[in-house]
Amino acid sequence: MIQIKLPEEEIAGVPLKNHMLLAAGILGTTGASLKRMLALGAGGVVTKSIGPNPIPGHHGPALIPVDCGLINAMGLPNPSKDFVEEISPLKGEPVVVSIFGGTPAEFGEVASWFSNAAAFELNLSCPHAEGYGAAIGVDPRIVQECTEIVKTYNKPVWVKLTPNVTDIKMIGKAAEKGGADALVAINTVKAMRISTELCRPVLGNVFGGLSGKAVFPIAVRSVYDLYEAVGIPIIGCGGITTADNVVEMMMAGASSVEIGSAIYDSVNVFSEIAADLYAEDGIPAEEIVGCAHV
After folding, report:
1. pLDDT at position 135 over 90
2. How far apart are CA 179 and CA 266, in angstroms?
């Protein structure tokens, strides 16, 4: 398998310790858990998505394991502005703050709270929060406007895209036009399960988002499409569990990756992948980014 070198420069404006970040929504609700994931080998971390008002989230069941993945319907639970103090001890670390809102103005309000963020990741893609996420992230005009207002805070802006659209390239181009420094692809795929014993949906919210190995091919295709449509870095996200998955995602066009559901099976996934992925005599990652395009 191809092995690569550790990054020597910033990726999408963030000085990552390696090419792998903790994805939003996984062990990202406290400063202590984020610090722990950095200590366990994550090259950077993305926080739980933070919005303009505290939200308790959907009632349970909110997370169920399925073949080759997980389906969750958390409903964007978050403490809102109180999270600023929670992550203040992590100043100087590669902490990307995930934010959401129902309007561009709300995105701007939340961004104004986090002066110590290394970057912002705009959650315009959650499939199970009414009025937020994918509910507005399918509109190119709103995506551009949300990106523009957060960009005024002079920090790198990453825009996380939903795969639940007809043409992800159109949404990616809108984010790029708004000044995005990177695109994150993808968020979860809209899904559900039904209990045949209870004759009702399993999730409390009825439907949720599928993540894990099952969505990896969808993520690879999305990154591949975006690489041909935009000129900014892409962070691949969705079903990554091995070093070979990281290499494949890079060949599709990703400059780095985010890992989430794999932590369900092993909290040491970052160090486990790094052991196979990196070598002192490895090649610069830039040499394989997008090499599968012909």
Report:
1. no
2. 36
Q: Burial of 96 by CB count in 10 Å (0-12 exposed, 13-18 middle, 19+ buried)?
A: buried
Question: What whole-number distance in Å separates Cα of residue 213 and Cα of residue 65?
Answer: 12
103 and 135 Cβ atoms separated by less than 8 Å:
no
CA 86-87-90 angle, to 5 degrees, is 145
Which amino acid is located at 42 in the chain? Answer: A
Say how far apart CA 208 and CA 37 lie, in whole Å.
25
The amino acid that residue 166 corresponds to is T
C-beta of residue 289 within 8 angstroms of C-beta of residue 255: yes
**Mean per-residue pLDDT, 138-165:** 97
Residue linked to tokens 């858990």: 33
Q: Does the structure show a pLDDT above 90 at 130?
A: no
Rounded mean pLDDT of the chain? 96
Residue 222 burial by CB count (10 A; 0-12/13-18/19+): exposed, middle or buried? buried
Give me the active site residues, please. 126
Please provide the size of the chain in residues: 294
Residue type (1 letter), 194: I
